[in-house]
UniProtKB/TrEMBL annotation, chain A:
Name the UniProt record assigns to this protein: Uncharacterized protein
Segments traversing the membrane: 23-41, 53-75
Keywords, comma-separated and alphabetical: Membrane, Transmembrane, Transmembrane helix
Organism annotation: Marinovum algicola
Automatic annotation (TrEMBL), chain B:
Compartment annotation: Membrane
GO function term, MF aspect, one: transmembrane transporter activity
PROSITE patterns listed in its UniProt record: HIS_KIN, NA_SOLUT_SYMP_3
UniProt name for this protein: histidine kinase
Pfam family, one: HisKA
Record membrane topology: Multi-pass membrane protein
UniProt source species: Marinovum algicola
EC nos: 2.7.13.3
Length: 95, 909
């Protein structure tokens, strides 16, 4: 592992996979931000109506579920691919 | 049949169905046909025990009171699940790699298998969960009672109401014992339980959806109408305490990770990590459906039901009020399912913790660890777990009875969440930070638990458990210690206040104490295993993974090679890698080169195959547990010690055998010498006897023997007789000396005179071929000894020199020297070739002759000399020298200075 230079660039497929992982990491952050949006709403009679709040929250909730579902389909079997070294050098390092 | 009895019948059938489902699931799992039991969907549905009766009934009541705030309870888990790539993936991987059995086990395993920590977490979980179990019992009782009230049929009667809870508790305990402790599965999986709660998950979801659909399309008349009704209701405007919104979202997220029952289904019962991928979207979807109709039901309940109706039971009472008895029964089943599934899994999880971390250690201590037979322990574990399950459920029931099932219980859900959330800092810290230590975890948990109890749990119990005076003015009147306004910060919601302070100070203490303390080797090893669990399983390896492995290798190497050797080897390798001197304790980078050398070093102790397997297990990331690895290392160390002992013993044996062989050789040689002597002495005796007989026969039988011949023959007879006598004298002499029967004639005399006499006597006996040189000490040496015997020794030594000296011009040098300690030394050195090495240790033995080919005597001379010198308190020795034969006689100058005579002659010299 250390006696070989790390690969600076990876294959296109690996690159895609890593960006998908980034997306999976980013999704809950996005979720938190969207969930905290109601904190900014004005309250009282002239503020946001309850039905509006319900619709907003359930829509982003459903959107998050859908996004997570799509990501989970693409993130199948995360273990088979190493992230920064080709498999044969890793196997050597294990000797 | 009245409706209440119908409800009881339906419930009984439903419970029987659950038992059947669990039984079938166990059966097929046992026969290996249980693949369908382990589908991602079953896993997702089993996660639904997050939705208890508190959320099934309580969410609607919550919404009726405070609008949309209830939704935070579902938003937190949603974020945790869609963020599975961050935490859950690692948590589940660790749980599977370390074969974790509960959240207490996880914390304990991370911090060096500390049982104290496990006990702490267990107590925290029991304290936090018991009221929650009571809440479930209450919800069943309450819903049953209100069902009976609503249909106007008192059913079993008031007295029996309390017994509803008892029956439910007993039924749940029975179910959990039956299906939760069927076997001691290594991975703590319970197929029957999981399958039953999956079925219950479907029932409660469908029940709630059915009520929701009925409300929206049956009562309200459509979606738009429902939305209009929502806006028109008293919760129609957006109202939100921002602090509570954020705090509750966070709290429910934390609870989703830390609740013992959630941990049980999410981590312990997880059969395949890939299931998590499905659950990451399916479970949020489930939660979404569970909460979809909460607001419409609440609004419709507020609109249709009388003013004083309990909003917590709208889900049940709304269909009843509308005359939909079947729907109401279905709804009741939903609530019943929520309550029972929670109690079952919570009891199972808590019982595992209580049994593993409290009962078993105590039992092992009491029995003094006698339980070495595996079947023995197995039985006890099962029994202890069964008793723990019954105990946990009983605790919940007792709590329910003592608190009277009042309103205080209703708020316990969030209080309980806040309690178990105290584990979060330690858990997250343990998973992501290698510097987290056991003491830090203990301190953080204690602070968090204490603050939670002080600021939230005790005040929430009400009823005078925390005196009003303390709540208002603080303990002893110290205002800044008021439980709900710590450090003088007032105006916060009590829950937000308690969560904020307890978690903040918990995390701070955990962090600070961890920084200040030093972890044990096992803690460090476990820390590395936990933090790097994703890397070990084969994905990317970062620089920290390298350091971790070096440390792991070091721990392993120490167990096998011994601490100093391993440290020296690692330092040497670090020096080799960096090319310069390193500070002590530096670790080398585990590159293939180093690993190969380490493996070679280890294979010297444990064999190549084992060494390779051990190194590969650490570096290659095979998911063997650390405990196993260390056990192997310990065994190996014992084996090495044992083989060392064997080696020492066999060396000792070899030395003894060599000595015996030497002694045997000597005995054999002596025996040969003796045989040779006997034949020699026979010959020696026979020769003179023959001539004596022959000449005496001539003298007797021959008539005319001239006087001259007569004289000649008789002198021959005389000479031969003398020779015979001398031989016999020698033998007698030796025998007398050896038996210690000799009488010594001690008198004063001069050493020089004794030597003079001996030299002249020796010269008189044979030819004068030997030249004797004298080097006497300057002063005359006075002796007090037996001079006749001493002379005999001197004569013998001089005669030996004459007989055996093989030089062309034989010379004997006699030197006398007085010693400081009252001894006198006389050296006899000739210029011959000396005595051969192999004969040196035999010359003083009887019958021994240095060279048989020069057989001049019977080989008794030196033996007699040694015996005489011992009687005189001195010694005669042969001094090994390169060229000459060198005899040394040592004797005391006076009888007083004599050394104590040795007893029998020793076998070895």
């Amino acid at each position: 592992m250390s006696d070989r230079p790390r690969h600076l660039f990876v294959e296109r497929q690996t690159y895609r996979r890593r960006r998908l992982q980034d997306a999976a990491r980013f999704l809950p952050v996005l979720g938190i931000v969207l969930m905290m949006v109601p904190l900014l709403w004005s309250e009282g009679a002239e503020g946001v109506t309850m039905s509006g709040a319900v619709i907003y929250l359930f829509l982003i909730w459903a959107a998050l579920v859908a996004a997570a579902m799509v990501l989970s389909l693409y993130l199948r079997d995360d273990r088979s691919e190493p992230e920064d070294s080709p498999p044969e050098s890793r196997r050597e390092a294990g000797r | 049949m009245n409706t209440v009895n119908l409800l009881i019948l339906v419930c009984t059938v439903y419970v029987a169905l659950l038992f059947l489902v669990a039984f079938v699931a166990e059966r097929s799992a046992m026969r290996g046909r249980g693949r369908w039991l382990r589908s991602p969907m079953v896993y997702t549905l089993s996660l639904s025990i997050y939705c208890t009766a508190w959320t099934f009934y309580g969410a609607v009541g919550y919404a009726a009171r405070s609008g949309l705030e209830y939704i935070t309870i579902y938003l937190g888990p949603t974020i945790v699940m869609i963020g599975w790539w961050w935490v859950l993936r690692k948590l589940v991987r660790v749980g599977r790699a370390q074969r974790v059995t509960s959240i207490a086990d996880l914390i304990s395993a991370r911090f060096g298998k500390s049982n104290l920590l496990a006990v702490g977490v267990t107590i925290l979980a029991v304290v936090g969960t018991t009221p929650y179990i009571a809440l479930q019992l209450q919800s069943v009782t309450l819903s049953f009672a209100s069902f009976a009230d609503a249909v106007g049929q008192p059913g079993p009667g008031d007295g029996a109401r309390a017994s509803t809870a008892l029956w439910v508790a007993m039924g749940l305990a029975l179910f959990t014992v039956l299906f939760g402790t069927r076997n001691l599965d290594a991975n703590e999986r319970h197929h029957g339980v999981v399958m039953a709660i999956a079925v219950e998950a479907v029932v409660k979801l469908v029940a709630l959806l059915a009520v929701g659909v009925f409300v929206v399309w049956g009562l309200s008349g459509g979606v738009n109408e429902t939305l209009a009704r929502i806006d028109a209701s008293k919760i129609g405007n957006w109202q939100m305490d921002g602090g509570r919104w954020a705090a509750l979202t966070f709290l429910s997220a934390a609870a989703c990770l830390c609740l013992p029952r959630m941990f049980q289904v999410m981590v312990v019962e997880n059969a395949d990590e890939a299931h998590l991928r499905t659950a990451s979207w399916a479970f949020p979807g489930y939660l979404l459906l569970m909460s979809l109709f909460v607001v419409p039901i609440a609004v419709m309940g507020l609109e249709r039901l009388p003013e004083g109706a309990n909003p917590d039971l709208f889900v049940l009472t709304l269909p009843l009020a509308e005359g939909q008895t079947a729907l109401a029964i279905f709804s009741f089943l939903g609530g019943f399912s929520s309550a029972t599934s929670m109690v079952i899994v919570a009891a199972l999880a808590l019982a595992t913790m209580v049994s593993n971390h409290m009962v078993m250690p105590l039992w092992l201590r009491w029995t003094g660890g006698r339980a070495s037979v595996s079947g023995d322990v197995r039985h006890v574990v099962l029994l202890s777990r069964r008793i723990s399950i019954a105990g946990v459920v009983a605790l919940g029931y007792v709590y329910y009875r003592t608190t009277g099932g009042g309103a205080a219980l209703a708020s316990i859900g969030l209080v309980s969440f806040a309690g178990v959330a105290q584990v979060l800092p330690v858990m997250i810290g343990g998973l992501y930070w290698r510097g987290a230590t056991r003491l830090g975890a203990l301190a953080g948990l204690s602070v968090g638990f204490g603050l939670w109890g002080y600021a939230l749990f005790l005040p929430s119990l009400g009823g005078g458990i925390m005196p009003q005076d303390i709540l208002a003015n603080g303990p002893l009147g110290i205002a800044w210690l008021r439980p709900q306004a710590l450090f003088g910060i007032e105006g916060l919601d009590p829950l937000v206040h308690a969560v904020l302070w307890s978690l903040l100070l918990n995390a701070l203490t955990f962090f600070t104490v961890s920084l200040a303390t030093f972890p044990t080797p096992l803690e460090r090893l476990q820390g590395a295993q936990f933090v790097n669990v994703l890397n070990q399983a084969g994905s990317a390896r970062s620089w920290s993974a390298g350091a971790a492995q070096a440390e792991d290798l070091m721990v392993m190497a120490q167990r096998i090679l011994g601490a100093p050797e391993a440290q020296a080897f690692f330092e040497q390798e670090a020096e080799r890698q960096s090319g310069r001197a390193v500070r002590p304790g530096a670790l080398p980078e585990p590159n293939p080169d180093f690993l190969q050398r380490l493996e070679r070093e280890l294979s010297g102790s444990v064999g190549a195959a084992t060494a390779h397997a051990m190194v590969a297990q650490i570096v290659g990331g095979a998911s063997v547990s650390v405990r196993e690895l260390l056990a192997v290392a310990d065994e190996t160390a014992q084996m090495i010690e044992y083989s060392d002992r064997l080696e020492a013993q066999s060396k000792e044996l070899a030395a003894t055998a060599a000595k015996l062989r030497e002694a045997n050789d000597k005995l054999t040689r002596l025996s040969v010498q003796k045989d040779a002597f006997l034949s020699q002495i026979s010959h020696e005796l026979r020769t003179p006897m023959t001539s004596i007989r022959a000449f005496s026969e001539i003298l007797r039988d021959t008539a005319d023997v001239s006087p001259e011949e007569q004289r000649k023959y008789s002198s021959i007879i005389h000479d031969e007789s003398v020779r015979l006598t001398r031989l016999l004298d020698d033998l007698l002499d030796l025998s007398v000396l050896e038996n210690g029967q000799v009488n010594l004639n001690i008198r004063q005399g001069d050493l020089r005179e004794a030597l003079d006499k001996a030299v002249s006597a020796a010269a008189a006996e044979g030819d004068a071929g030997l030249r004797v040189l004298r080097e006497d000490a300057a002063a005359p040496i006075r002796l007090e000894t037996d001079f006749d015997r001493l002379g005999q020794v001197f004569i013998n030594l001089i005669a030996n020199a004459r007989k055996y000296c093989d030089a062309a011009a034989p010379e004997l040098r006699i030197t006398t020297r007085p010693l400081s300690d009252g001894q006198v030394q006389v050296d006899f050195v000739d210029n011959g070739s000396g005595i051969p090495l192999e004969a040196r240790d035999l010359i003083f033995e009887k019958f021994a002759r240095a060279s048989p080919q020069r057989a001049g005597g019977a080989g008794l001379g030196l033996s007699i000399c040694r015996q005489i010198m011992e009687r005189l308190g001195g010694a005669v020795d042969y001094l090994p020298s390169e060229r000459n034969a060198h005899f040394r006689v040592t004797l005391p100058a006076t009888a007083a200075a004599a050394r104590p005579a040795r007893g029998k002659p020793k076998l070895t010299n």
